[in-house]
Write a structure and sequence with these properties.
Elements (H helix, E strand, L loop, with lengths): L6 E6 L3 H9 L6 E7 L3 H8 L7 E3 L2 H5 L6 E4 L6 H10 L4 E4 L6 H14 L3 E4 L6 H12 L5 E9 L19 H17 L4 E8 L5 E9 L5 E7 L8 E5 L2 E5 L8 E6 L4 E5 L8 H13 L9 H18 L7
Parallel strand pairs: 1-2, 1-4, 2-3, 4-5, 5-6, 7-10
Antiparallel strand pairs: 7-11, 8-9, 9-10, 11-12, 12-13, 13-14
């Protein structure tokens, strides 16, 4: 693909997160929305009506994938459909950016990666937080040695959701539960900063539908660090992350996974508040990363590698095993 050729994005499934991603493509450096698809053509047309008149609407995923109108697809369907839809796109020869959680379990993720490698096509999990400027600043501060060695990470994500067994958050057939939906963010930040845990213990409180309402996780790492991670649909939490080091700490402002700022505290010294950029909702950064990889002919991203996603899903599998959460469609 020519490096000066704008990337044409297609969106599969027209839900709320798809709207945010589509909005943010206006901030992407060398790409634009070209097509959207839904199983309901009217839904696709309504979605497309919010954007440039050139955006095409399809009432079939297959029709969009075979149209010749797109270079890459963003999959925005519920977790439980990610495997099916990723394979569909890869079989059609279209590179994929698939929303988190990448799939339901490690077996599905392994099959998705194997198919991408077989087809020599790009595949990445859309864990947008990884590409935010705030994460780059966080890593820069840690690498500088200002806070010393990391000893503990605390991260939470919670909001109060009205219980409805048919809603995506609580429906086991739609892979509901706080862990895969929002608990993945605290787990991600701990893995990014500390790597794979040596030990992990999880406990959960289940909703009447059988998915997790609350999930609490404690981890230990080879470095001697630990982490306390929490997600819930039962209460509004601060949704912050604090990284405690031997010399200081970094407090990521709410909501930490999309924050525009953080506070650095050196023990016995000053507090420094730092602001970081966030264009729009914050999704254009991952789009830019995908576009750069496609122009360079790469089939995976170095920051959000296949191995990272495979290991992250393995941790989610282990947590679900410990809290007794299984899904009917796995």
């Amino acid at each position: 693909m020519k490096t000066d050729q704008p990337i044409r994005w297609g969106i599969l499934a027209c839900g709320g997160i798809a709207r945010k991603f589509a909005d943010d493509l206006t901030h992407a450096k060398n790409g634009h929305l070209a097509a959207v698809s839904s199983r309901d053509i009217k839904r696709a047309q309504e979605f497309a009506s919010h954007y440039d008149p050139s955006v095409k609407a399809f009432g079939s995923y297959e029709d969009m994938l075979s149209s010749g109108e797109i270079d890459v697809v963003y999959i925005a369907s519920p977790h439980g459909l990610h495997y099916e839809h990723t394979i569909l796109c890869l079989e059609a020869g279209i590179p994929v950016l698939c929303e988190k959680a990448f799939a339901i379990n490690s077996k599905q993720v392994a099959a998705m990666i194997a198919k991408a490698r077989e087809k020599k096509l790009f595949l990445m999990e859309a864990l947008w937080t990884r590409f935010h400027p705030s994460i780059a600043k966080l890593q820069e501060i840690i690498a500088s040695g200002l806070i010393g060695d990391i000893k503990h990470v605390v991260a939470d994500f919670g909001f109060k959701a009205e219980y409805d067994e048919e809603a995506r958050w609580f429906n086991p057939h739609l892979t509901g539960g706080s862990l895969l939906d929002i608990g993945i963010y605290p787990l991600f930040i701990s893995k990014l900063l500390l790597g794979q845990p040596l030990e992990m213990k999880a406990t959960g409180v289940m909703a009447p539908s059988g998915v997790d309402m609350n999930c609490s996780i404690a981890t230990k790492y080879a470095s001697g660090a630990t982490a306390s991670l929490f997600s819930t649909f039962a209460a509004q939490t601060d949704t912050t992350c604090t990284v405690y080091g031997t010399l200081g700490k970094i407090y990521m402002h709410p909501r930490f996974h999309e924050t525009k700022g953080m506070t650095l505290t050196i023990y016995g010294g000053e507090e420094t508040v730092m602001e970081t950029e966030r264009l729009g909702w914050g999704y254009s950064y991952e789009a830019d990363a995908v576009q750069e990889d496609l122009h360079a002919g790469r089939t995976e991203n170095a920051w959000m590698s296949h191995q990272f996603s495979q290991e992250l899903m393995g941790l989610l599998d282990e947590i679900r095993s410990q809290i007794g959460l299984t899904y009917p469609n796995e």
